[in-house]
Hints:
The complex is a heterodimer of chains A (273) and B (269). With 273 residues, chain A is mainly α. Chain A folds into two domains: 1-48; 55-272, MetI-like fold (Orthogonal Bundle). Chain A has helices spanning 3-16, 20-44, 55-100, 105-116, 120-131, 135-158, 163-171, 176-213, 219-228, 232-261. In chain A, helix 3 runs antiparallel to helix 4 (105-116), helix 3 (55-100) packs across helix 8 (176-213) and helix 3 (55-100) packs across helix 10. Chain B has helices at 46-53, 71-76, 95-106, 116-122, 138-149, 168-185, 196-202, 236-250, 253-257, and strands spanning 4-15, 18-30, 35-39, 61-66, 80-83, 156-160, 188-193, 205-210, 215-221. A six-stranded mixed beta sheet of chain B has the order 5-6-7-3-8-9, sandwiched between helices. A three-stranded antiparallel beta sheet of chain B has the order 2-1-4, covered by helices on one side. In chain B, strand 6 (156-160), helix 6 and strand 7 form a beta-alpha-beta unit. The longest helix of chain B has 18 residues, at 168-185. Chain A binds chain B through residues 162, 164-165, 167-174, 178, 182-183, 186, 261-262, 265-273, and chain B through 51, 54-56, 75-76, 78, 80, 82, 84-86, 88, 90-92, 101-102, 104-106, 128, 131-132, 134-140, 166-167, 169-170.
Amino acid sequence: MSAAASRAAEAARAGIRLPGMAQSFGIPLLLFAAIVALLEWLKDSGHLPITVPAPSQVAEAFLQSYGDLLYHMGPTVLGAVLGYALAISIALALAAIATSVRGAEPPIFRIGVAIDSIPLIALTPILMVWVGNGLSSRIAIATIASLFPLIVGSIRGFRAVEQNASELFHVLSASRGQAMVKLALPSALPYLFAAFKIAAPLAILGSLIAEWVSADRGLGIMMVYALFSFNVPLAWLTILAVCALAALAYGLVAGIERLVVGAGSGERLHSDG
Amino acid sequence: MSEIALAGVSKSFAIAHKAVHALAEVSLTLPKGGFYALIGPSGCGKSTLLRLIADILRPDAGSISIGGHPPAEARKRHEIGFVFQDASLLPWRSVLDNVRLPIEIAGRSVANPADPMQLIELVGLADFAHARPSQLSGGMQQRVSIARALALRPKVLLLDEPFGALDEITRQRMNLELLRIWQETGTTAVLVTHNISEAAFLADRVHVLAAHPGRIVAEIGVGLARPRTLALMRTNSFAQAQNALRDALFGEDGAAEEEAEIAAGQAPT
Lengths: 273, 269
């Protein structure tokens, strides 16, 4: 390709690509505003069922009860964070066994699949009999809900070291510690963070499920009360709050990933051809 | 700058519960400071041979010595530089940090390591010292990996088909550069290749391997004068050297067993 043609191609690509901020915030915000306006109009003109409130009603519910919302958010988040941390510890330990003990990976994987296929909503009441209905049940369900992707990601990450790279470290006579810090850990991080990102919202949902079944405080029980008292705007408010929490959890982990792993590999500067 | 000697080296692998003889009774001596090529068809064990010298693999039988010491000792003294077929750079490190890696790992156990920046200049990548490997072309990545292999001033430089994945034009350019680097460092170089012209162009002596089991069938001295340039590739003596290699690889077994010496007109004394 000639220099002029490649510059033209570059310009064409740049034209389609939006500036970073507009891309990550502008378009979603615009879409959100459009949906809000549409819902508001549909509700006004009577096209929406009674179970779907107008966005303005939800906003009103927020203004009335944001204090309650914050009060109930605390235990949900605490349960999710602790369950998430516990799930990460278990997953890392299981992955370490799976990748270091010959033949251990298939059974560990199967246990993971079995745990993941448990219907949590049915398990939770039984679990409450065993561990009680306080923080411990939130932690237990959040752990179970987020465990499987963490196991898969950790095993994949621990196996991520390439054969040649490991031979290179051998030729360089690197110590086990050096191989761990300079090779195994950096190789594993992308896979670990992929799993961490998927698992974070799952932990929030796990904590929520525990509260549905029984809790004195928490977003889950607030949701259940709103539903039983047929306070539709409040029910939707709690749903939105959970969505926001899950998205925040994902974003937080993604932010940490950017800090730890760096901003990616960048564009190709040169090619042979 | 170490002599490499192998005596009766055998190695087999268990593949699907069957023993495959990768190498059988291989003996060869590579005097110090020379450039040697191992050439042969796929599966002849030439990469295995290189990995045995580098102490990545252990022989089932026979002995290997580098400068009179076992490979494990040479490896622990950081006397071995290894270049893999794919550059095997760490993608999260810059070019400079990749070249610096062996120095970081060796720590104070190596008295006078090379200056990473000078090595990067030696391989012609001064402008890319802070680039990530993924931003470089395949040829440039391989040059980084050669610079990395030289970071601890190794006494032997082992190259496992380093340019096998590159196009012909880039490969020739890299060959010239490799010769220049080898001459500047004075290290003993062993190159595994399946490219006849590459072997003839680079090496003082080419060892030809055959498969099933992997064994050395011919040892061919390439008496072409140094420094070698691209112009050399047009000469008759270069064509003769290539023909001798081709005969050893494809000729009748009897002819291949004999050691052939190429009497090139301008052979060095």
